[in-house]
Design brief:
Distance between the termini: 22 Å
Strand content: 15-25%
Helix content: 25-40%
Shape: globular
Structural class: alpha/beta
Number of helices: 14
Strand order of the largest sheet: 1-9-8-5-4-2-3
CATH class of the largest domain: Alpha Beta
Number of domains: 2
Largest sheet: 7 strands, mixed
Number of strands: 15
Radius of gyration: 21 Å
């Protein structure tokens, strides 16, 4: 029995008729760019995230860029973000001309409030906490520090749609929230896509303008900008999937609980923690494992797919070195990168498969 790391075919099989019906409606309407399907999805997403506004865009990266532009961040400014994230978090900062300032993380893989505060300089204008793995960052402390230093807070919630911190949905905690709708995310387009949630309505007009080439009308461009639109076909399919997100989330949490139970007595494996304030959605289920690379190879031989998110922290990649960072600067993230391993966690995974993955891990350490 093969157990892939992801199985999008299994997700789409029961939804195929719904998805094709949604696509047919868009095809019949002839409205493929910023049509009613996008507006309907934005309204539903804002309700889900408990925010006044949600804006569909073409990627999670562009969502970050548009938010930073709305905050007025540019050359000469610094923005702090954790080093263990996917590179898009830091890339967005560089793309608006600012300097990415990296910081270490805690045992929960989230931005360390202490490391965040230590990284603040007179040039710091914002912080991008990343809700990595679908677990919320420690937002109470982050928001308190940001308020004390008058910094903008942009949540990178690419992996964490529907997650909660102290009963409040991610994307509604800071000044803005950025979401990826990439095919591998928990709410996923059948292609690329992203979204931005806003708690500050004053930015709405500027972001709507900038996602559409700065066009106030077909013949009047107000500002130089790029094309960051979410297309109607993706929005229509996302609206279908949004109706299933609650069940998918609960199934991911059920799978995570079963993994914890099955792996609890293996001393060489440390399961992810879920802090008391968090409602995690488990975009990834990341264990810390001794002999990680050998374990991954062993599981692969058994037909079990795994992944590593992410094997090289940003500060040790070429772009990080160009910022002046080196090995040893962020010891927690560096140690985690040697041990982390993502196990299959998708909602269609059944208990038999989870038991098989767990038994294979136990067999390896025997």
């Amino acid at each position: 029995m093969q157990i892939p790391y992801v199985d999008l075919a299994a997700q789409h099989a029961p939804l195929k008729a719904e998805l094709l019906s949604a696509v047919a409606e868009v095809l019949d309407s002839g409205q493929f760019v910023l049509g009613p399907a996008v507006a309907e999805f934005e309204k539903a997403l804002a309700e889900l995230c408990q925010t006044p506004h949600a804006i569909g865009v073409n990627s999670g990266t562009d969502a970050l860029v548009l938010a930073l532009q709305a905050m007025g961040i540019g050359p000469g400014d610094e923005v702090i973000t954790p080093t263990n994230s996917f590179v898009a978090s830091a890339s967005a900062i560089a793309l608006v001309g600012a300097r990415p300032v990296l910081a270490d993380v805690g045992d929960d893989y989230q931005l360390s409030p202490q490391a965040f505060e230590a990284a603040i300089s007179p040039h710091t204008q914002a912080v991008i906490p990343v809700h990595l793995t679908g677990h919320p960052a420690p937002m109470a402390e982050i928001l308190e520090i940001a308020k004390a230093h008058q910094l903008w807070v942009l949540e990178d919630a690419a992996q964490a749609i529907r997650a909660e911190y102290q009963g409040q949905r991610v994307g509604s905690l800071g000044h803005a929230g950025a979401f990826s709708l990439h095919p591998l995310k928990t709410l996923n387009a059948c292609g690329d896509g992203g979204a931005l949630t806003l708690s500050n309505p004053e930015w709405l007009d500027a972001i709507l303008l900038r996602r559409n080439l700065g066009l106030r009308s077909r013949n009047d461009c107000e500002v130089w900008s790029s094309n960051s639109r979410l297309d109607s076909l993706q929005a229509a399919m996302l609206q279908v999937k949004l109706r299933h997100l609650e069940n998918w989330t609960l199934k991911r949490r059920t799978n995570a609980a079963l993994y914890r139970s099955c792996l609890a007595d293996i001393p060489q494996v440390k399961c992810p923690i879920e802090t008391p304030a968090a409602f995690a959605v488990y975009h990834t289920f990341v264990i810390r494992a001794q002999q990680r690379d050998k374990l991954q190879a062993f599981l692969s031989e058994k037909g079990i797919g795994t992944a590593i998110h992410y094997p090289v922290p940003i500060h040790l990649q070429t772009v990080g070195k160009a910022l002046g960072y080196q090995y040893g600067d962020f010891p927690q993230a560096e140690q985690q990168a040697k041990e982390i391993l993502s196990l299959p966690i998708y909602p269609e995974l059944n208990s038999e498969q989870i038991l098989r993955v767990s038994e294979a891990i136990r067999q390896f350490y025997r």
